[in-house]
Amino acid sequence: MSEYQSVGFTKKTYGVKGELKLSISDQYLEDFAQAEVLFLELAGRKIPYFVESINFENPFTVKFEDKNTKESAIELTGKEIFMRTKDLLPAEEKVFEVEGLLFYEKYVNYQIQDETHGLLGKIKEIIEYPQQEMAAIIINEKTVLIPLNEQLIITVDEAAKIISMDLPEGLLNLE
Description:
The chain is built from 2 helices and 12 strands. It is mainly beta.
């Protein structure tokens, strides 16, 4: 058995404090959530990086110790992430209950209201894509996918179950 297991890869930097967006294989999410050290392959060697924090909300990010600026984290973008096989949980111990991966799932059955088009419809389901959750609603007997993220959501009225959004022009193509 190999000493290291590939669990995913880093993407772009996120923000200005040295955070990195990630893509982690589902089967290793629980292992990753408990990781204190991750290894990135640089110049053919696996270099340890100590985890300062992990954010499981959208976007999924990691912050390594000693990487406190966007510039210092750029060298770690697009790298394969490894964990030591001895740090992986045995399959029978995995529970797979990492909270926050489907952040918007709680909004199923909420109405989506767009500033331009008004009330669009009720969210039938939340579909997870890599680094993006989409609300599936029915408009004119067609399923339409609407991206859910902080930039598009204006307010969420929990009592009325309405999500007010400012959707980009042309996203709906309602003609």
